[in-house]
Amino acid sequence: MGAVVVVGTHWGDEAKGKLVDILCQEADAVIRYGGGPNAGHTVQFAGTQYKFHLIPSGVLTPGVVSIMADGMVIDPWALTEEINALVAKGIDVSGLRISQNAHVILPYHRDLDMHEETARGKAKIGTTGRGVGPCYADKASRVGIRMGDIINPARLRERLEQIIPLKNAILKHVFQADAYSVDTIIKQLGTVTATLAPYICDTQALAHDLMDAGSKILFEGAQATMLDLDGGTYPFVTSSHPISGGATIGTGVPPTAITQVLGVVKAYTTRVGSGTFPTELLDERGDRIRERGHEYGTTTGRPRRCGWLDAFALTHAVRVNGLTGIHIGHLDVLAGFDEVQICTGYTRGGAALNRFPSGDVQLLDGCEPVFETLPGWDEAGVENATSYDELPNNAKAYIARVQELAGVPARFVSVGPGREQTFQLPDSPSAADIFNL
Ligand code: IMP
Q1: What is the CATH number of the domain that holds 211?
Q2: Does the beta carbon of 38 lie inside 6 Å of ligand 1?
Q3: Low-confidence ranges of the chain (pLDDT < 50)
Q4: Distance between start and end Cα atoms, the chain
Q5: Ligand 1 pocket, residue 272 CB under 6 Å
Q6: CATH number, domain containing residue 134
Q7: What are the pLDDT digits (tens) for 205-253?
Q8: Ligand 1 center to residue 133 CA distance, Å?
Q9: Shared-domain flag, residues 305 and 272
Q10: C-alpha dihedral sign at 93, 434, 224, 100
Q11: Does ligand 1 lie within 6 Å of residue 422's CB atom?
């Protein structure tokens, strides 16, 4: 028994997949509770590379139930491609389950995402263009199509006949764009329904059955804290709830069932898309981090903006997620600098802020980061390390300082993408024990 949530602490791309991969060896089920094909990560498994956008990476671990829960928005064509690609590589996807309540991204959501971004002009969010925002907007407006609808032809037609005229009115009259017909969408969905149908079910009931059976459940967050619709830097956010609270809303599992919340922190900070990024490095140090860390989007290929670790933003992530521990990754990417910096706070007009201003992006705009400088560590020292103890002392000092600023213990650190490059900290519970805390 035990329900562990893994969340990103900043603006996404913290490599949550690596911690998920380690914890999922101990779990009975992995549940993705939000987001859609805007997410993306690459997992290296038994010498083969797998790219995931929608399916929880737990699917690679035999015997683990992999659930795509209510809070997700699913592009059924992208999902079908992902399933087919895994099957073609010999992966058994029979443990996959898709919530009947998850919302379906349809072609007009992608069109609207693009037209809305263009209309925003200079204020554009820099969305991934996958139709995520418009799909969640339809969910909240109660004009969405859910995965359960696509396997119920009469209901699908009835819903689309109500919804398509509304969408066409916006597409035609607001954006002068092409309209959709109900028949075309039904026909397009017909190309994927047979593949997806066997996996669609009541995943709330399944999650409760798993809990009743005393299973160990891992909740795989997508995106990250600062991209949360309410907890993040609105309006430069995604349209879901990546924070730990999203794990309960997006699955039907109650907050009281969650036993641990682990935050995945990168040793530096990155951001994709628009919005204020106080610790951004616009010089060769940022370029160096981008190249060494291969900081280019898995979903869009866009170069990520890179900067020093924002530990002030991290304190916000600790609070809104209720973090019980952190994983500090990418220590290898930061290696080779003579000295590194950590942002410990912000000032505005010369005065120090006592809380990260997540709720007011205009306030964030005028903030100056306060940096602390620490000595760097060498590349060979982290590359050759096989345990935490073997890490260079300066890297250990950096880890200690991040823990201190976060106010929660580091459970794991990592120095590369391989499983063997993630180290448990001394006196820290093992991946198996984390489910028993
Ligand atoms: P959307 O989720 O496509 O609507 O994009 C909204 C904002 O969230 C944009 O700034 C995106 O770049 C950002 N975003 C969405 N998903 C991710 C992710 O997985 N990693 C990093 N940024 C993301």
Answers
A1: 3.40.440.10
A2: yes
A3: none
A4: 10
A5: yes
A6: 1.10.300.10
A7: 999 999 999 999 999 999 999 999 999 999 999 999 999 999 999 999 9
A8: 10
A9: yes
A10: positive
A11: no
